[in-house]
Description:
The protein is of the alpha/beta class. It has helices at residues 8-24, 44-60, 75-87, 106-110, 124-131, 140-151, 171-180, 195-200, 245-248, 262-280; strands spanning 4-5, 34-40, 63-69, 93-96, 160-164, 184-188, 204-207, 225-228, 232-233, 239-240, 254-255.
Amino acid sequence: xxxxxxxxxxxxxxxxxxxxxxxxxxxxxxxxxxxxxxxxxxxxxxxxxxxxxxxxxxxxxxxxxxxxxxxxxxxxxxxxxxxxxxxxxxxxxxxxxxxxxxxxxxxxxxxxxxxxxxxxxxxxxxxxxxxxxxxxxxxxxxxxxxxxxxxxxxxxxxxxxxxxxxxxxxxxxxxxxxxxxxxxxxxxxxxxxxxxxxxxxxxxxxxxxxxxxxxxxxxxxxxxxxxxxxxxxxxxxxxxxxxxxxxxxxxxxxxxxxxxxxxxxxxxxxxxxxxxxxxxxxxxx
Length: 285
């Protein structure tokens, strides 16, 4: 028996189609939403992600600008760029592409982005709203995972979800969102003991460890939901995730592929966040 594929491309297309309808209804006298993507250095993986975001935004008709900065840029220079974009009324969303070079502190610079323009949902203010159940702009990957579950009518209420990631980018906000939906959540990390036992108890496993095929298929509970957040390029150029997809799909009832799973939905959620930021700034009243 093979698990049902959670097709992120299909889900993303549905999100973007709905967004396109809203764009078509926009008053022609109003400016189109504009996103500024700041990239520091030329990391190949980051460049690929930025290209996907540029293409998706432009297809929707959004204005997307790419601010490419040198890997040797100083903290002061990066701060100046962010402040320049904060003050520009024609820019409705700002995204700081991660990771940054080791010489720069991501948390410091993410906090410099104006909360209303924080389309990644990572500003302390927006994360604080999430904790208080008053979410404004949500982090794109956690939001995308929930949208993917909803697209396939998979309810989280009552499920035991095991998240193997405790970052502010994925694990922590996702845990809060799943708690709000009625799931019981266990957040694991590199120091978690008896991880295999916890995974074996999980109705839903979300893995974002950064390690190819980290989750052993033997750990999985039959009939579980397997959400693979990792995308790892192999020496032969192929992309693999954190589950052994070929074997895991015979155990899991639902599973995301790599590529084509969480990634496309994350990008779609970024575009939805840009639209929300634009609306929150009173430009679609």
